[in-house]
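Whiteboard transcription, Tuesday session. T.W. wrote the structure tokens on the left side:
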């Protein structure tokens, strides 16, 4: 017994050390680039400005408005703006003669505003991304640890650690090079969602009983609250909350009517409350509860008609295909999700094994898996319909979720074949995925570090590539 305890302790310590190293690798480079660390703030300080606006008692950003811009019939048309010679603040929302932040308000309320009130100084945006990324990685490691402990006892510990590192790097690598604003929104939503899933899993793993129900319902409330908050960070990522549907179905089958109603209320109430608050916030700014400001962006394209017939079906379908399967070429810097990371696509071959499907059904995970896949499809559609074109950072919306699905599928695949060769191959795939993330990070793009030092980045890419194929 003593030996087993010590063995578990060693595993826990090793997992913590690897997790901390992974966090350091991801957050350390974020402050090195003046384009993203606040030295040259441009439009990346909107969270900071929003916190100041709330302290001043209003929801608009206190920025000067060019009268020429205010008089344009359609200020969202980039051609009209350019022809008019109007000055404007890039990638802000502009409505009724005032500037607004179209990024979600939740990071401001939970981090930027408290920091400003406590310290009297603004929180530099990339620091928020560092915190959210660190918490996300801890959450992903914790979720995978729990799943391995319950379902995947055959998975070697080294393979487990490799998958944790690989899927963590895969999920956040883009934000490492371009951390402020855009990836602050994304990383905050990733953080909310991964901890929401972890708490839901914890709650559903608890035994039922009057003494344990209160604690379990606290977990359900917290999980729902975090899931709901993701809508106020980055709405597409929050579509992962679809997993609540099979969760409610499972509770309905397991519980009597009275307890189910209490459990369902604990789950649904936070979504209703947070949703109502977000809709009220939207209405106060844009006179519409469903308008986050996406339609009023001053950016590369006129998005005021998106989602209302402004984009053709064929155009949206083409962007959706690029989201997942775009091939690398001269016209694109990055490839689609499954082209960048073939490991994610390969994991679905596990479903060809009857034993894997049986284990998924026996453990009541098949419906959760299916729901996550539906969520990924919807996220891809949302990003394709509501964006001028697909950017690599949009794929961060699904990398993490596909990583969770792949971990589950590879886990049951290994339990099915019970072959050490399988885990060797799995570990190799994990290493390739991690190295791919490093190579992608070294691609010059979006004013990232590789853009500042293109020669050094190219040399390092070549060195790593040669090391892989030797």
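and on the right, the sequence the group agreed on:
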């Amino acid at each position: 017994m003593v030996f087993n305890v010590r063995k578990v302790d060693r595993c826990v310590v090793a997992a913590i050390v690897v997790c901390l190293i992974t966090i350091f690798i991801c957050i350390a480079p974020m402050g090195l680039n003046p384009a993203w660390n606040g030295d040259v703030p441009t439009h990346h300080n909107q969270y900071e400005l929003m916190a100041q606006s709330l302290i001043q008692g209003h929801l608009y950003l206190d920025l000067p408005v060019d009268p020429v811009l205010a008089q344009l019939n359609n200020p969202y048309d980039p051609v009209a703006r350019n022809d008019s010679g109007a000055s404007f603040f890039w990638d802000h929302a502009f409505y009724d003669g005032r500037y607004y932040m179209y990024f979600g308000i939740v990071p401001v309320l939970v981090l930027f505003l408290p920091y400003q009130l406590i310290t009297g100084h603004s929180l530099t945006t990339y620091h928020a991304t560092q915190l959210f990324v660190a918490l996300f990685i801890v959450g992903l490691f914790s979720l995978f640890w729990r799943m391995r402990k319950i379902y995947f006892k055959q998975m070697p510990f080294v393979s487990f650690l490799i998958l944790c590192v690989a899927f963590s790097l895969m999920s956040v690598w883009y934000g490492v090079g371009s951390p402020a604003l855009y990836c602050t929104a994304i990383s905050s939503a990733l953080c909310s969602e991964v901890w929401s899933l972890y708490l839901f899993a914890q709650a559903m793993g608890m035994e039922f009983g009057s003494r344990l129900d209160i604690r379990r319902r606290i977990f359900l409330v917290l999980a729902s609250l975090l899931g709901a908050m993701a809508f106020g960070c980055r709405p597409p990522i929050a579509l992962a909350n679809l997993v609540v549907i099979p969760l409610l179905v499972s509770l309905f089958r397991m519980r009597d009517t009275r307890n189910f109603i209490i459990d369902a209320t604990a789950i649904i109430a936070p979504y209703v409350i947070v949703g109502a608050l977000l809709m009220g916030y939207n209405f106060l700014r844009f006179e519409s509860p469903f308008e986050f400001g996406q339609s009023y962006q001053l950016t590369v394209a006129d998005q005021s008609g998106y989602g209302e017939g402004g984009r053709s079906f064929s155009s949206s379908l083409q962007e959706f295909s690029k989201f997942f399967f775009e091939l690398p070429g001269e016209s694109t810097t990055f490839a689609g999700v499954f082209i960048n990371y073939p490991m994610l696509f390969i994991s679905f071959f596990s479903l060809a094994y009857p034993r894997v499907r049986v284990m998924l059904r026996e453990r009541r995970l098949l419906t959760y898996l299916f729901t996550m896949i539906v969520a990924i499809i919807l996220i891809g559609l949302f990003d394709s319909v509501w964006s001028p074109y697909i950017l690599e950072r949009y794929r961060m919306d699904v990398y993490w979720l596909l990583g969770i699905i792949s971990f589950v599928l590879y886990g049951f695949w290994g339990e099915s074949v019970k072959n050490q060769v399988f885990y060797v191959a799995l570990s190799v795939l994990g290493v390739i995925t991690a190295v791919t993330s490093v190579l992608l990070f070294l691609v010059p793009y979006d004013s990232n570090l590789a853009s500042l030092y293109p020669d050094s980045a190219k040399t390092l890419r070549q060195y790593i590539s040669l090391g892989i194929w030797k």
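Someone added at the bottom: The beta strands are 93-95, 98-100.
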